[in-house]
């Protein structure tokens, strides 16, 4: 894929998108990130460029799999040397390839996390992670090294030959023609089966936030923008069906007729993103389960006028509509089986509150919620915001003690513990009713239990339940619970 023809096509797509696509942003000169790589010319060394405040220029953002340590990454001790120049041969092949692409599409700067963030400086890391969403959404174009599992691999390889069968035929002029049947590979579901970047957690927001992308995939180079999805840049056999457009157009400052959606809809959008993200792999889930999606969170908070609680990876105003998440036990179990049953299906991540989806590893899903009954107690003050950030959620809900619920005896009850193996239902548990699903058929809520030795009492979430309440929207619990057993309580969840 390293040919003048490919690069010329890529340049044409960028120009066409910037000037002729109604649904895409026009040509802009964005603010540069704190640091970028100045790629220089073919025979020059690239070097680290430290931007001046307010400096603007077009730049590329790279999305790729690290696949292990990158010894040439920028550190406190090497930053000055990198400002002087970086010998190409010291860099991983994927980084070299990205620099080659940037040069050939005539964009001078490129943002690469390993080089533009000081990797042994936690303050710098946190500062840059907080603006990562902006770095990707403002980039002129993103390069996705989709076919490379490691930074050392490179992504500009020649495409593999497709198997084909030649087919002679008789033309209408009665002469012999010749054609070929070429192998056709279809990839569904987010390219999950095909490309390494589609399985990695960090690559999720890097794929969604740019307004245009050049994707160097296993099956060729394709183009993504807000108007055109997965178009082959060079004729190949790319047929990928996936949902690239998961963020609202206002993410890129585009005008929209749609008003800001209500909290319920915002939560639904977020839960859909979480579902896609949570099934991806992370090398360090205890740190990155929240960090690797915070770029999208910060951008959406900006777009929706909500507050993103990055510590728990949830939004403040629509919190009530987000806490009904459930562990996708079926997917978790089938994954574990594929791994020979050796990996634990779902593990709790220490330090995160049990009411956040980010506190467990593995896939997450949820029902679309309708009428809510519970409420999150939030007086809007800084204190409540800090409580939420530190993991305390005050929930007012109808509750019933576990001993009053005959789960086993009723087929219309479903109780799922967050840790797929390792918990069983008993009378330590209480059921806290959140509300009805959007069809008004299921009562949905959380299974909670007291945390031993807390004073005042604190609760932890241990699971999720739903119960068929037969469309009784007025008193949805009356078919499943005895009214005299139901109480309203304020629960402090941690
Ligand atoms: Zn476009």
Provide a concise account of the structure shown.
About 25% of the residues lie in helices and about 20% in strands. With about 500 residues, the chain is an alpha+beta fold.
Describe this structure in words.
This protein is 23% helix and 22% strand. It is an alpha+beta fold. The protein has two domains: 231 residues, no CATH class; 231 residues, no CATH class. Strand 8 and strand 9 form a beta hairpin. The longest helix is centred in the N-terminal third of the chain and has 17 residues. The radius of gyration is 26 Å and the shape is globular. About 1% of the residues have low confidence. Zinc ion binds next to loops.
Feature tags:
494 residues; alpha+beta; 8-stranded antiparallel beta sheet; globular; binds zinc ion
What does the overall shape look like? globular
The strand order across the widest sheet is 2-1-4-3-5-8-9-10
Q: Could you say which small molecules are bound to this protein?
A: zinc ion
Total domain count: 2
Rg on CA atoms, Å: 26 Å
Distance between the termini: 52 Å
Task: Tell me about the largest β-sheet.
Answer: 8 strands, mixed
Low-confidence region ranges: 186-192
The share of residues in helices is: 10-25%
On the 0 to 100 scale, the average pLDDT is: 88
Strand content: 15-25%
List how many beta strands DSSP finds: 22
Q: How many helical stretches?
A: 12
- Category from helices, strands and their pairing: alpha+beta
Quaternary structure classification: single chain
